[in-house]
Amino acid sequence: MDKLPRPTDAELAILRVLWRRGPSTVKQVHEELSRRSPSVYTTTLKLLQIMTEKGLVTRDESLRAHLYTARLPEEETQMQLVGDLLDRAFEGSAGRLVMRALSSRPASAAELEEIRKLLDRLEGEKG
Amino acid sequence: MDKLPRPTDAELAILRVLWRRGPSTVKQVHEELSRRSPSVYTTTLKLLQIMTEKGLVTRDESLRAHLYTARLPEEETQMQLVGDLLDRAFEGSAGRLVMRALSSRPASAAELEEIRKLLDRLEGEKG
DNA sequence: TGATATCTACGAAGCGTCTCGTTGACAGTA
DNA sequence: TACTGTCAACGAGACGCTTCGTAGATATCA
After folding, report:
1. Which one of A41, A45, A123, B127 is least enclosed by Cβ atoms within 10 Å?
2. Residue ranges, chain A, pLDDT below 70
3. B105, B108, B116 ranked by CB distance to A86: nearest
4. Beta carbon pairs, A and B, within 8 Å
5. Is residue A61 exposed (0-12), middle (13-18) or buried (19+ Cβ within 10 Å)?
């Protein structure tokens, strides 16, 4: 039953807050978001309601201030988003996406090392 | 003057056709798209008109059947899209995006090798 | 010339996203 | 009880995306 829709930009911003903070009230999410760009409380509320309908978040109504939680962990959503972009713009080729990512942004030496290890592991599997 | 907007899904599908075929008429783009999912000619036309307004494509009107061309090459658009995703879902960390991409889709041995070479080059630059 | 095919242009409609104002429920406090 | 603050719910409006129907211009051909 569970094909969750791709989150929109505004929804993703909310998910980032929920991943960082864990279960949060509308007020908490709103304060976090308003720190970067001021907005109105009810906008955040409305988005969380829509996200609940879509299944992107779950809601605990046992307290007066409802608690919202991201339904999928950050890693899973990231994989979904990357897979999506892969199909839409890279004809499914992960290799080319990686090339573009590494060319467009510098990665730290530690990250590069980690990627190298992942490559070793992947090539080992094929081996 | 040139901050082009991020192309939508339908727009990206059209851009893919233009990158593959080069300058094309509405009819050619539409036939290519309809192969995968049937649609109406004027839908493709309307999208190309909007994309012209946005600057995503340019139009050569010298012939009766106008010729549309992608304004940016595929590589550049791909870098823009990856950078966008990086900011929206990976807090700017290219390393983590690469990890997710490689974990979520198998890459060919040749691609892995190419990535390895890129890593060598990048680490060489850092010295 | 007149009929037909091929194009572009235009506008509207359905839908989703995002924002915001208003209302009403509920708790705490004087 | 009355006042105040906090919260969710609801609905409307603006905008963008996508689709499509229709109209009008232009070429082709009998």
Report:
1. B127
2. 1-2, 126-127
3. B105
4. 144
5. exposed
CB neighbours of A43 closer than 8 A, spacing ≥ 6? Answer: none
Token pair 């304060």: residue: A31
Q: Is the CB of B50 under 7 A from strand D?
A: yes
CB A56 within 8 A of CB B74: no
User: B23-50 pLDDT, tens per residue?
Assistant: 999 999 999 999 999 999 999 999 999 9
How far from A8 is each of A13, B9, B79, CA to CA, in Å? 9, 13, 20
Q: Look up the pTM and report it.
A: 0.92
Query: How distant, in Å, are the alpha carbons of A74, A95, B10, B90 from that of A78?
Result: 6, 17, 22, 8
Determine whether the interchain pair B16/A123 forms a contact, defined as Cβ–Cβ distance below 8 Å: no
* C-alpha to C-alpha distance for B11 and B87, rounded to whole angstroms: 21
Question: Quick check: A98 and B79 in contact, CB under 8 A?
Answer: no
Q: Is the Cβ pair B16, A83 closer than 8 Å? A: no
Residue B98, SS3? helix
Using one digit for the tens of pLDDT, what is the confidence trace for B111-123? 899 899 999 998 8
Residue whose structure tokens are 């978001």: A33
Q: How far apart are CA A61 and CA B26, in angstroms?
A: 52
Q: What is the pLDDT of residues A90-118, one digit of tens each?
A: 999 999 999 999 988 888 899 899 899 99
* Sole residue written with tokens 């309601």: A49
- Do residues B95 and A111 make contact, with C-beta atoms less than 8 angstroms apart? yes
